[in-house]
Amino acid sequence: MIKRLLLSAVLVFFGLCACHKHVELTETPFQHFEDKKPIHLVIDTDMDKLLAKEEDQPYQDAQLILKKDKCTDEHFHLEARPRGVFRKANCAFPPLKIRFPDEVLEAGGFMDYPTLKLVTHCQEDPAYDQLILKEYLIFKLYNILTDNGFKTQLTKITYCDSYKRHENIERFGFLIEHPRELADRMNGRILGEKYGAPRNIHKPQYKIFTLFQYMIGNTDWGLSNRHNVKLIQPNTGDLKIPMPIPYDFDFCGLVDAPYAIPHHNHPIKDVKERYFQWRGGEEDFTDVFDLFKSKKEALLAVCENCEYITEKSKAEMLGYLESFFVLLDTPEAIVGK
């Protein structure tokens, strides 16, 4: 009996709820948090230190609590730090990266994917929750079109200051799976920036990628500098050619963030203007146009069925997507630009 109580205490200390299902050794940290509905997280850390906006901020101690229904909360002793470039410099609340120490990974039976990105609300204005939800839904749109994309998990987050100097903040955010976890799911490896512009690229996936970016009105990406793109090269199959995987969509027209502007090299003046950034030479897009048309109802349903965005935000997203499908009826209006 005493041994059983001691074991239970150790498991709870390392974040394993006693009434939670047994954690398999093949589970990743992201899979542990993955759920069809939003999860509720509490992040307890030194908020003054987290929001200091210092250069090269190191990881700091934090406690992550996964709130559970009808079950003991799960506590994870981990580390967190601000990340990103633009949002870190321009947001009142920066996006975060959380890191699981080796002992927590080991205690949880988690595979070695130690970090997760957390996309946060940027500004105190509650309207920024809508921007977070829009960006989260864009990841889900890409998942409708291809399996070769990042998985995300919507979260309701309570931020607590360990020293009680600030009131709690409750906002939406979302987790993004570790890039290596995505690469392993694709049975491939991530190509680093040292490779420069890819000499070859997986054309079918590149066409989906490019038309998707056009659909959401996103020009904030680049292959050669890996700007908001991961290149993953499959290890098996006939075509061991890098595939582009998109992320970071806050500068796209479908989100329409107040701070978003097009790059000065692009012939557009507003992020809601679409610009087709295909760099693959002459190519027939008929098959990809047909794919998007076949997925129209499923894509619209992603936005239509989200209960957390306002009716105004929902109407904006649906209207913008509908305008894309109108353009699909005249392909020259897209590929001719």
* Mean pLDDT across residues: 90
Rounded to an integer in angstroms, the radius of gyration calculated over CA atoms is 21 Å
Largest sheet: 7 strands, mixed, barrel
Structural class: alpha+beta
Shape: globular
Write structural notes for this entry:
- By secondary structure, the chain is α+β, with helices and mostly antiparallel strands.
- The chain has 12 helices and 10 strands.
- It has helices at residues 2-13, 29-33, 47-50, 86-90, 102-108, 127-145, 179-185, 203-216, 286-294, 296-304, 311-327, 332-335; strands spanning 39-45, 60-67, 74-82, 96-99, 115-119, 152-161, 169-176, 188-191, 229-234, 243-246.
- The strands form 2 sheets. The chain has a 7-stranded mixed barrel with strand order 1-2-3-4-5-7-6. Strands 8-9-10 form a 3-stranded antiparallel β-sheet.
- The longest helix is centred in the middle third of the chain and has 19 residues, at 127-145.
- The chain is globular and about 60 Å long.
- The protein starts with a helix and ends with a helix.
Could you outline the blueprint of secondary structure elements for this entry?
Elements: H1 2-13, H2 29-33, E1 39-45, H3 47-50, E2 60-67, E3 74-82, H4 86-90, E4 96-99, H5 102-108, E5 115-119, H6 127-145, E6 152-161, E7 169-176, H7 179-185, E8 188-191, H8 203-216, E9 229-234, E10 243-246, H9 286-294, H10 296-304, H11 311-327, H12 332-335
Parallel strand pairs: 1-6
Antiparallel strand pairs: 1-2, 2-3, 3-4, 4-5, 5-7, 6-7, 8-9, 9-10
